[in-house]
Amino acid sequence: MSVECVIQNAAKTVGEGPHWDDVTNTLLYVDIYVNAIHRYDPDSGKDERIVLDGTVGFVVPAKKGGLIAGVGRCLVHVDWDSKKVTKLHEVDHGLQTRFNDGKCDPQGRVWAGTMGPPKPDIPSMKKIGSLYCLDLDGSLRTVIQEVGISNGLAWSEDGKTMYYIDSTPRQMYRFDFDGSTGKIGNKTVFIDNSGKSMPEFGLPDGMTLDTEGNAWVANFFSRKVVKYSTKTGEPMQSVEFPASRITSCCFGGKGLNELYVTTSAYEAPEEEMKEFPLSGSLFRVKGLGVKGFPANVYEGSVTVQ
């Protein structure tokens, strides 16, 4: 196993939301507070970006063209070439929230959640976020409310289980998932790091699954991506990085056997940046001996509200 820094200090604030586009063999990711979507081509080493008018929490391709992104409190459609941004939905009216992580389910719906300000601190922040689902007809529905920091999402290979992370209580949940309707039920706590050592376990953040069905979870403040068994919820393996604020991960590369990992430099104290000057960098892990699934994309229509 090897850990490689692919782009040093790729994100000036919070690098997040890595998505491997297997059509173009490029990696999409965002830099939240620079309002930027990045597209990295490993073959050429080129890292392009476009800057939008608000914080960007996530980005996923749309099958019919362009990208779906969470910008501020809005879901938008972005045309990369023309830079045209089309507002689809606005949520959380009157609340000081923004979109955070988001992904597509196996049927091609977009699931994306919001979060409020982490003040006075993460354990004490108000749970004013929600998890939303953008259906294939372009309509939007609220699925979960009273969320602290809406984060990682993943679906089992058989499509019957959805995994979801709320970073505030430091928990991952498991739901029964009905792919035909997009409904979830029977919520259980699958991984619970509440009360555990922050330097060792951190805050669960973004995640992905490998083809063996195990969960790879980025642990903010712990320097680690941890592999968990989805049968027992127990940690199986960990990968350490020269950065403490690990935000998310996805499998990529032409064989989907490389783990791309995003990190954050946002609000890192000077002493921390001295110790971990690669905070905010994009990393790639090779030689893990596992691979991931092709990432789902939005299969629905783009309806302007």
Describe the structure.
The structure is a single chain. By secondary structure, the chain is mainly β. Helix content is 3%, strand content 50%. The chain is built from two helices and 24 strands. The chain has helices spanning 198-201, 270-275; strands spanning 2-7, 15-21, 26-31, 36-41, 46-51, 56-61, 67-71, 74-78, 85-90, 98-104, 110-115, 129-134, 140-147, 150-155, 161-166, 171-178, 183-192, 203-209, 215-220, 224-228, 235-240, 246-252, 258-263, 282-286. The strands form six sheets. The protein has a four-stranded antiparallel beta sheet, with no helix packed on it. The chain has a four-stranded antiparallel beta sheet with strand order 2-3-4-5, with no helix packed on it. A hairpin with a 4-residue loop joins β3 (26-31) and β4. The longest helix is centred in the last third of the chain and has 6 residues, at 270-275. The chain is globular and about 45 Å long. The N and C termini lie far apart (47 Å). The mean pLDDT is 96.
Please count the beta strands (DSSP E, at least 2 residues each). 24
Give the strand content.
over 45%
Largest sheet: 4 strands, antiparallel
Q: How widely separated are the two ends?
A: 47 Å
Helix content: under 10%
Rg, please?
17 Å
Q: What structural category characterises the helix and strand content?
A: mainly beta
What is the topology, as strand order, of the major beta sheet? 1-24-23-22
Instruction: Count helical runs.
Output: 2
Which runs of at least 5 residues are low in confidence (pLDDT < 50)?
Answer: none
What form results from the Cα inertia axes? globular
Mean pLDDT: 96
Strand and helix order: EEEEEEEEEEEEEEEEEHEEEEEEHE
